[in-house]
Structure formats: structure tokens, C-alpha cells
Amino acid sequence: MPELPEVEVTRQGIAPHLINQTPVELIIRNRSLRWPIPDVAQNIIGQKIRAVYRRAKYLLVETQAGTTIIHLGMSGSLRVLPVNTPIEKHDHVDLVLDNKKLLRFNDPRRFGAWLWYELPMENHPLFSKLGPEPLTDSFNVEQFSTALIGKTKAIKLCLMDNHMVVGVGNIYANEALFKAKINPSAAAGQVDHARLGELVSAVKDILAKAITQGGTTLKDFTNAEGKPGYFAQKLHVYGRGNQTCDVCGHLLSEIKLGQRTTVFCGICQPIK
DNA sequence: ATTCGGCCCTGCGTGC
DNA sequence: TGCACGCAGGGCCGAA
């Protein structure tokens, strides 16, 4: 479900309801997510929430005693709901607050995560090797081209590799490469500097616009209030294999890269 | 060290 | 109507 824009839209939606609240109960109905939800997840109880922030696609609920780490995986979502809202299928976790609301985690495929960490987040093994945030100046063409030196694998796989830059999933990787006119299969280390500059700009532009639009709703993404996003109406290649290119009118090609569907225009994005 | 493929899981659309 | 199959917004892990 979520790439960075959807996670950020979720964060913006839930944060006002959580900040300065104190969890009174953590209800775990199914702890078998990507990793089992640990017993120490209960340590958030009684700890006032002082921030809700995001790193890569992780949502972080910070207290003085430690931080709850939430990842939505492919199909996860978070809603803020009144206590006593009836349970639905795949509602695995409720964080009950002292304001008569709860944060509810639903995840059909259970690729998501709910963890607890008491040290500074940069020490966490999941965070220690993450690349820069795409919407900050730490992601720039100098940094990116340096990271790609000598890489033989496809540029699209590098764009989706959290060591290079975080938060770019399959939808926005396809879209950014189209906008930058780079063939997704091109060897990453061979792409010229000017094209990489276009790519960096495209990533920033597309992610920022998607956040403004409330994210991309393909099937079922909704924000914390249950409303869908509208960015899907602006997608040029993702989900459009064998349709015509918006720019040149030729048929879009569809291939697999890293087992992920990849759509591009062979005319606008030549191999070169 | 890098790259690649498998895998975790449920649900939905397609085609027989 | 039912069933088998393939595919889906992510990312870890082990093999080569």
C-alpha cells in the first residue's frame, strides 16, 4: 500500500491526535507481523507521546522512555478512531489513548511491523544504514552519483534501494524514471550526471506533489480519516503497460526488474 | 563486496 | 459457481 507519500500523509493525519496523549492500553490481537510484536512494546503505556515523525517508510511514535516503530509493509494502514469502534478483519493492534481515541493498525498481508526501541533511533539496525531522505538536501546529485559509482545493476533497483535513498517504492520509481527520461534497466553507474540530476529533481518533485495530493490510492489506501488519495490520476507509466505514452504516443513497455513490474516508454526513455 | 532470487502473507482479478 | 494461478504499494535474508 504505502510508499513515502502515503506514510507521510498518514503521519500528518495521526500526529495531532497522538501528541501529548498518554497511552493507557496496547491491545495486540495478532502479533505475527514481519517480526513478532515484542512484549516490550507495552513499555509505551503511561508514557506521554511527544512526537510522531517519519524516517524512510517507518513511523516513529516517540516518548521519553522509548519509541514505537511502525511499518505499514505492503498493505498496512493506521486510523485514529473512537474507543469502542467495532473490530474488523486484520485489525491487529490498538493503541488506546487517554483521550478516548485509539490508534488502530490494520494489515491484511502482515508484512508490516510494530516494534519498540529505547536507544537513539540511529543506533537501531534497521536505521543505521539507511540512505538520505529524498525530500531533504542530503539527497542531491553529488551524493547520489557518488553512491552509484561502479554499480552495474539497473538504475531502478538502485533508486528503490534504501542504502542509496529511502522511500522510493515501485510506483514513484517508475514515474521518476519516466520524468527524467532514463531507461529503468540502464546500468546505474553508466547514467550520465545530467540525467541523474534530472532524476533527483524528478523524485523530489513527484514525492512532494503526491504528498500534497494525499498520496496514491490504487486499491485501498486511505489516510487517517479514511479518505483516499488522488495522485493516481497523475500517474504516467505505473499501471499503464501497453497503453500509449502521454508524451509521444507510442506503446509503453512492461518488464520485470527485481520481480517488480516496470513500465516505461522505449522512445522517451531510450537505452543509450 | 555486490547482485539476484526467494520468501513472508492475504486478497483480488482473470481465465478455464 | 468454483478453482488455479498470477499479481500487488516492501524489504529482509541467504546463495552465488
Automatic annotation (TrEMBL):
Residues 2-112 form the Formamidopyrimidine-DNA glycosylase catalytic domain. One of its GO terms (molecular function) is 8-oxo-7,8-dihydroguanine DNA N-glycosylase activity. The keyword Metal-binding applies. Residues 236-270 form the FPG-type domain. Binds 1 zinc ion per subunit. It holds the Pfam family Fapy_DNA_glyco. It catalyses: Hydrolysis of DNA containing ring-opened 7-methylguanine residues, releasing 2,6-diamino-4-hydroxy-5-(N-methyl)formamidopyrimidine; 2'-deoxyribonucleotide-(2'-deoxyribose 5'-phosphate)-2'-deoxyribonucleotide-DNA = a 3'-end 2'-deoxyribonucleotide-(2,3-dehydro-2,3-deoxyribose 5'-phosphate)-DNA + a 5'-end 5'-phospho-2'-deoxyribonucleoside-DNA + H(+). GO terms for biological process: base-excision repair. The active site is at P2 (schiff-base intermediate with dna), E3 (proton donor), K57 (proton donor), R260 (proton donor). SUPFAM superfamilies: Glucocorticoid receptor-like (DNA-binding domain), N-terminal domain of MutM-like DNA repair proteins, S13-like H2TH domain. Coiled coil: none annotated. DNA binds at H90, R109, K151. PROSITE patterns: FPG_CAT, ZF_FPG_1, ZF_FPG_2. InterPro entries: DNA_glyclase_Znf_dom_DNA_BS, FPG_cat, FPG_Glyclase, FPG_N, H2TH_FPG, Ribosomal_uS13-like_H2TH, Znf_DNA_glyclase/AP_lyase, Znf_FPG/IleRS. It comes from the Bacteria. Its EC number is 3.2.2.23, 4.2.99.18. Its cofactor is Zn(2+). Keywords: DNA damage, DNA repair, DNA-binding, Glycosidase, Hydrolase, Lyase, Metal-binding, Multifunctional enzyme, Zinc, Zinc-finger. Monomer. Belongs to the FPG family. Involved in base excision repair of DNA damaged by oxidation or by mutagenic agents. Acts as DNA glycosylase that recognizes and removes damaged bases. Has a preference for oxidized purines, such as 7,8-dihydro-8-oxoguanine (8-oxoG). Has AP (apurinic/apyrimidinic) lyase activity and introduces nicks in the DNA strand. Cleaves the DNA backbone by beta-delta elimination to generate a single-strand break at the site of the removed base with both 3'- and 5'-phosphates. This is Formamidopyrimidine-DNA glycosylase. It comes from Parashewanella spongiae.
